[in-house]
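Friendly challenge for the regulars: who can give me the structure tokens for this chain first? No prize, just bragging rights.
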Amino acid sequence: MTNNGTILSVRGLKTYFHTEDGVVKAVDGISFELKKGETLGIVGESGSGKSVTNLSVMRLIPEPPGKIVGGEVDFDGIDVLSLPIDDVRKIRGKRIAMIFQDPMTSLNPFLKISTQLMEVTQLHLGHTRQQAYDHGLKMLETVGIPDARSRMEGYPHELSGGMRQRVMIAIALSCDPELLIADEPTTALDVTIQAQILELIKDLRSRMGTSVILITHDLGVVAGMTDKIIVMYAGKVFEQAPTRELFSTPANPYTKGLLKSVPDPAHEQGKELYQIPGLPPDVAHLPPGCPFAERCDRAEDICRKDFPPFVQINEGHHSLCHFAQEVYETSKQERAAAGSAA
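First reply, four minutes later:
Bragging rights claimed.
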């Protein structure tokens, strides 16, 4: 870990996919830092590059068609991208763990839960079969699975979606990782189970000091979970800021659009819900200038011609926009007006 407590530093990460339609720049120059014990949220619409960013950190990009073509991933002083793959496997699962989107496809349907739980500690911690079984049983109890011993002998299809997700979390946390990457951990779960899963991750972070990267397309999920947020669009970081500041005073039109799209309990009945117009661009054929320009209500000619600068608003708050400062000031005024009205 560096002197300022940074456990993960990603600088200029680029991951491209070579397809019949051209080169897809799924991740194009992503940079961020994560400190020990922090939780970082990565949000954005589907296809924005959230999952590919973190699969790149884990060195799980299938080659071909994908390839990490540039950048650095520094984990606790280790350059992950230059490590031999055998050394990467020693880190993956032990020091960096990942909860994948869909536990039904991530868990092996032919193997018992016990087998899948035991494998990781036998491999990384050198456990005997009995030690691995006892540890796996303890982990199931830790993540709140009732009657854990009988569940150990079950198969993934015999569990509910929430329980399968808890098994995935148990596997991910079996070696007390320093970094946990949770990729859409609540996808396809009902709201009650969603809340339980998120509370579980929050509790484990506070008890074990684990750093967390939480990937989602839902800004509501990260509101109470994260210390800071990265907003991604078309493979780029469009805005990054401390969570509270991003929600109160966004400095990017795309972020403002995402926030307006979140359903509000006080929404006027019969009034149409807001949605960002248009569709995300084809990242294999990005237009010149800002990739959000065609969907942006603030866009001007410069936005369609010149790629926007990454503007610093405050310490830790940056926005990729020609009019970032103006958007930020407008957000401040809107917040003040809303406070007066309240």
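The radius of gyration is 21 Å. The mean pLDDT is 88. Your move, everyone else.
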